Amino acid sequence: MDELIFIKQKNKTTEVLSYQFLESIDKVRVQFQSGKEYLYKRENVKVYQYLEELPVNNYRYCRLGQDPYTNVAQVKKYSCEVEVKVRICFENGSESIVDFENLEIEESVFLNEQSRNIFSYFKKLADLNELRSEDGSSLLSNNYSKVDFISKKTVLTRFLSPSTSQENLQSVATELIFPFGCNNSQFVATKFAMENQISLIQGPPGTGKTQTILNILSNILYRDQTALVVSNNNSAIANISEKLAQPEISLDFLTATLGSRENKELFLNNQSTILPDYLPEFSNDINKDINMNDLVQVFAIKEQEADIKSELALIETEYKHFQDYISEQNILETDLSNLSSKKFLELLLDCENLFEQHKKVGFLFKLKSLFKYRIKNFTFYEQDPMLLATTIQKNFYDSKILELKKSLSKLEHQYQRLSGDDKIMKMESYSEATLKYKLSQRFVPSGKRKSFKNEDFDTLKSSNDFLKEYPIVLSTTFSAKNCLNKSVIYDYLIIDEASQVDIATGALALSCAKNVVVVGDLQQLPNIITREIGEKAERLRTENKINRCYSFRKSFLEVMTELFPDEPQTLLKEHYRCHPKIIQFCNHKFYNGQLHIMTEDKGEENVLIAYKSVEGNHARSHANQREVDIIKQEVIRHYHLNQDKTGIIAPYRPQVNLLQQQVGTFISDTVHKFQGREYDTMIVSTVDNYITRFTDDVHLLNVAVSRAKEQLILVTSGNQQRPDKNISDLMGYISYQNCDIKQSQIHSVFDYLYKQYEKRREVYFKNRQRHSKYDSENLMYELVKEILLSYPDLDVVTQYRLQHLIRDSSLLTDAEKNFSSQSRTSLDFLIFNKLTRTPVLAIEVDGYRYHRHPDQIRRDTLKNSILQKYRIPLLRLPTNGSCEKEKLVSVLSDYEQTTTIILSEGVVEPIE
User: Fold this and answer.
1) Do residues 689 and 682 make contact, with C-beta atoms less than 8 angstroms apart?
2) pTM exceeds 0.85
3) Helices 503-510 and 556-563 meet at what angle, rounded to 10?
4) Helix (H, G, I), strand (E, B) or coil at 464
5) Which residue range or ranges hold the DUF2726 domain (predicted)?
């Protein structure tokens, strides 16, 4: 019979030959293998009967607080009344008996077949990793080969099977601390991190990504939890370590930089056996003299201030271009300062409706306007219709700018009344005091602390003891599994710069923790994978029938965002690094205008500068001596640049080598080496004679531009570039911001003016539920907006006046000049580049019957001719036509390379 016999709480199973319960005397007679026989009290003898055999494969057993059992052959469960014991039999024939209540049983993620298959795929991917050991084997593959068990407690369980329910749900974070400061986005990101097993943080340049990580770590420490912080970028890890070591916070005594053998040795050789005196005099009853709701209000005001400043800068720049447009026109100066910008748009709409009906401004209209707009000077309406509209538009700009400045002043006073800066400082002070007081209960200042040896990293128990002393471990992502015992499970894993981590490396790191915070930016540099490795990896994926989400070609951050679309994702929106003119390019080009620019535009000159070399093929083998000469002889000398505050970026190593040889006192490097760094002035050399896909990469451009704090200088080829290039967008943006319009035959698009006007039009047609009075235009407007969702650099305005486009009318005949100057001559839709404000495509919706009229044919012919002369493509779509969406998508897909004008029915006519 399979049973366990315990006498006086000791296992005597192998020594007992037989036993007999003597109920009459409440004793037990026990005969031993030795031949001896004894009587025991009934309570001293317990016989545990076999219940069941527990599984071994993909299960792990250990005593609470001890290392897991290894080489387990069999596990059996026994019971005696309510007590349960477990016999663990090992492959060498020995065994261990454990009380069931003291036994920890863990399931492996490999119990799930899907998880097992995906992990097997990761192991194969690991062999493609280019980091090799001395024997030529993949270091990452070696790390994978050591893994024989992964606890279901780890967040890797959900990564391998995203549909798995969240087992490690965090409690609602009732109290959060922010000793490193905070803003609205950082508050939300920290809250999500502390309340969810998986949280994602997108940190655009200069938005306080590291600060957010430090606040999350502070809250982890406050909860007596542990964290492993990893990154592929050594400088990112060093930055976090340095920030924790700052004298005003002094938390570095709780961190250990491990991972590689060298890092471990360095740590062990420099560990201190005495705790620092990190704790100032804080009383037990720390006073929290701040309300979180007040802080939220303070954050909201700062965001509103930033947004109004951005809007003000936008409209003031556009107004400069508008003033160029009206500079040669005889605008009637009339005092209309009593009208709001909204009223000016209503007045413009009233006048437009009148002109569309071919009516003049009569006495009745003037009388109504007297009461509605308080315009007493009736000569105001005697201007030419086009001049009248232009006068109203100018006054709209003046009024709107004044209104924005008043709103800004009001917010600034509101912030001062709330003592915003004081509240934020108090929050930081309170957070630091609260954290350090909590830590002092566990780490006595100036007290002794345990010292560790290299072998202490080997066992689970000693590794957990290590984490009690050093709850924050820093490492590269690659070495995450090597920091401590392979079975250690941290409370949190924080992966920084996750866009540079590949999926195989990131997945193995997930096996180390219960919860994960993934931090990065999809718009910055991704991990680099060669074409050959990418193709091998893709074959592995298809052969193993693995979901596309797990493609090796995607960065770890990209995979996480696809696998967990419903998990909290926070975009850090408050930007603190670059001059507004610099970062607004990145904001609108890469972040859809979502950033709040917290830096100040103080009217500095030469913030954005572009140098073009003379035309020619100056680049050779990815080096361009002409651009180096411009940097040496023109840029550095003219702007008296400080070598310690200036960085020079080039896309290619040969150009960097050339720069380092000839401008050696200045820091020059590739874009990849500059990520995470910043300089007052950045010089960007594009090198190529004709911009290539590599140089034009959006991630490289985003990083290059956003390194500049105060000044960005672009040095590029003078050769004509294709307008579809991102570099061309940057050139156009610089030109627009600097109002460099001397060579242009057309005006930039007055986007702000027309967008505000469209809003008023929508109100006007609201009762009819239309954007326009024509159904065909309403339908087309919705279609255009839908299509432009796939073209983030483009936008559309409606009923755009042709005269607002034409800057140099010398190309036009008298008939064309007269036609373009009429108030009714407009484009149904004008699609334009949001960054450069240059027109891309005009669209006309032609009513089938109306456009057969001789006068309309004449007008259409004139409009076609004018747009052709200014090289603005035109797409005419008849109301009785079909496939409008396909035609528009076809044109936009290749609009930058097309120098054509498209007439009725989509017929293409080349421009000579």
Assistant:
1) no
2) yes
3) 70
4) helix
5) 774-888
Residue 309 and residue 396: Cα distance in Å, rounded? Answer: 18
Contact predicate 752/648, CB 8 Å? no
Which residue in the block uniquely carries the two structure tokens 């992502």? Answer: 477
Residue 571, beta-bridge partner list: 202
Sign (positive or negative) of CA dihedral 621, 625, 631, 634: negative
Residue 80: strand pairing partners: 83
Q: Which DSSP string corresponds to 437-459? A: HHHHTTS-TT-B-----GGGGTS
As a whole number of angstroms, the distance between CA 674 and CA 656 comes to 12
pLDDT tens digits along 811-857 = 999 999 999 888 788 999 999 999 999 999 999 988 766 556 788 88
Distance of alpha carbon 110 from alpha carbon 149, whole angstroms: 8
Give me 280's structure tokens: 């100032």
Tokens of 121: 């795929």
Residue 757: pLDDT over 90: no
| Percent of the chain whose predicted confidence (pLDDT) is above 90 | 60
Question: Looking up tokens 């490690």, which residue turns up?
Answer: 168
Query: What is the maximum alpha-carbon separation in the chain?
Result: 130
CA distance 369 to 379: 13
pLDDT value for 856: 82
In angstroms, the CA 716 to CA 656 distance is: 15
Which stretches of 738-883 are DSSP H helices?
A: 751-764, 775-788, 814-820, 854-869
Residues 6 or more apart whose CB falls under 8 angstroms from that of 489 comprise 151, 153, 154, 512, 513, 514
Task: Give yes or no for residue 615 having a pLDDT over 90.
Answer: no
pLDDT in tens, 100-142: 999 999 999 998 899 999 999 999 999 888 777 666 677 888 8
- DSSP bridge partners of 827: 800
pLDDT of residue 647: 95
3-class secondary structure, 46: strand
Q: Rounded to an integer, what distance in angstroms lies between the CA atom of residue 721 and that of residue 728? A: 7
- Residues 45-97: pLDDT tens digits? 999 999 999 999 999 999 988 889 999 999 999 999 999 999 999 999 999 99
**Residue 6 to residue 768: CA distance in whole angstroms:** 89
Specify the amino acid at residue 826. S
Report in angstroms the alpha-carbon separations of 479 from 231, 425, 476, 909: 10, 38, 5, 61
Which stretch of DSSP H or E encloses residue 700? helix 698-706
Edge to edge, what strands does the sheet with 667-670 contain?
608-612, 708-716, 679-685, 646-650, 667-670
- The pLDDT assigned to 910 comes to 32
857 CB neighbour count, 10 Å cutoff: 11
The amino acid sitting at 820 is S
What b-and-e string marks burial along 859-872, b requiring 16 or more CB atoms within 10 Å of the CB?
bbebbbbbbbebeb
Place of tokens 């180390």: 512
Above 70 in pLDDT, residue 766?
no
Residue 391 main-chain phi, psi, to 5 deg: -60, -45
CA distance 145 to 137: 11
HSE value, Cβ hemisphere, 13 Å, CA-based, for 740: 14
pLDDT at 278 over 70: no
* Residue 555 near residue 498 (C-beta atoms within 8 A): yes
Instruction: For residue range 624-673, list pLDDT tens digits in order.
Output: 999 999 999 999 999 999 999 999 999 999 999 999 999 988 999 999 88
Task: Determine the Cα–Cα distance for residues 730 and 490; give it in Å rounded to an integer.
Answer: 45
- Kindly tell me the burial class for residue 910, based on how many C-beta atoms sit within 10 Å of its own C-beta (0-12, 13-18, 19 or more): exposed
Over residues 700-728, the pLDDT tens digits come to: 999 999 999 999 999 998 888 877 789 99
Does residue 3 carry a pLDDT above 90?
yes
What domains, with CATH codes, occur in the chain?
3-107 (no CATH), 139-272+449-571 (3.40.50.300), 294-417 (no CATH), 577-737 (3.40.50.300), 751-910 (3.40.960)
